[in-house]
Amino acid sequence: MIKVTYRDKHWEVPGRRTVRDVILAVDLNPATVLAVRRGKLVLDSELLDEEDEIKLIAVISGG
Prior knowledge:
Elements: E1 2-6, E2 9-13, E3 17-18, H1 19-25, E4 33-37, E5 40-42, E6 47-48, E7 53-58
Parallel strand pairs: 1-7
Antiparallel strand pairs: 1-2, 3-6, 4-5, 4-7
C-alpha cells in the first residue's frame, strides 16, 4: 500500500499508481497539492511503488 499523509489525515492506496492517480484516489485536487517522497518533490507523472510513502503539501499562492 502507498501511504499518503496530508495535514492530519492518513490514507493507504493499493497498487502501483502515478502521483496524480494517488492524489485523485484520496479525493484531492492535484492542482492544489505538491507531493514529497523521501524529502524530494516528485512529479505528478511519477510512478509510485506499493512500499512508497508520500506527504502532500498544500500549494499556497497570494500577492
